[in-house]
Design a protein that fits this description.
The chain has about 160 residues and is mostly beta strands. The strands form 4 sheets. The chain has a 4-stranded antiparallel beta sheet with strand order 1-2-3-4, with no helix packed on it. Strands 7-14-12-9 form a 4-stranded antiparallel beta sheet, with no helix packed on it. It has a 4-stranded antiparallel beta sheet with strand order 11-10-8-13, with no helix packed on it. The N terminus is likely disordered. A hairpin with a 2-residue loop joins strand 10 and strand 11. It is built from no helices and 14 strands. It has 2 domains: about 70 residues, no CATH class; about 70 residues, Beta Barrel (OB fold (Dihydrolipoamide Acetyltransferase, E2P)), CATH 2.40.50. It starts with 9 loop residues before the first strand and ends in a 7-residue tail after the last strand. The protein is elongated and about 60 Å long.
């Protein structure tokens, strides 16, 4: 089925015995797509899927569509070891608001240890230490809004004492 067929089209979808009227706004070839479900708008991500069609053995010989997920490209493996002493600061991975500070200056931290909680898009995210080391400074405070890439913490450089 060509995804352009569903551009601006209404379909009835039944999930677990409950029916929904779904209207696709735009083309399914672009993601995200806005859809209306029973009159309520939602923004959804669309991922490619392999579509297999075949004949159903009925008197009308109706066509049916079966969707089977394709293999996703491999993701980069997460780091399994500290980034090393060359990492001198921890930066915000995304814009958001600092909810909680979990480490203080002078505190020894381990790789992967949560240092603060960052709320972004109504989700709380643990921001973790990229290395073993000692926190030199905390550059943010609870309630502060931060930008992507803003320095949150600095670490003592090896050979430097606090």
């Amino acid at each position: 089925m060509d995804s352009n067929v569903l551009r601006g089209r209404r379909v009835k979808v039944t999930v677990n015995g409950k029916s929904y009227l779904v209207e696709v706004r735009g083309s399914l070839t672009n993601s995200p797509v806005t859809v209306n479900v029973n009159g309520h708008p939602y923004v959804v991500d669309v991922e490619p899927a392999e579509i297999v069609t075949g004949l159903v053995s009925t008197s009308a010989a109706a066509l049916t569509t079966m969707v089977r997920e394709t293999a996703a490209p491999p993701k980069a493996p997460p780091p399994t070891a500290p980034a090393g002493p060359s990492v001198s600061s921890l930066r915000a991975p995304m814009p958001g608001a600092i909810i909680e500070i979990l480490a203080q200056p002078g505190e020894r931290v381990k790789f992967g240890q949560p240092l603060c909680t960052l709320e972004a898009m109504k989700m709380k995210n643990a921001v973790r230490s990229p290395r073993d080391g000692i926190v030199a400074t905390v550059e943010v405070s609870p309630g502060q809004t931060v930008a992507h890439g803003q320095v949150l913490f600095t670490f003592q450089v090896d050979g430097e004492s606090k």
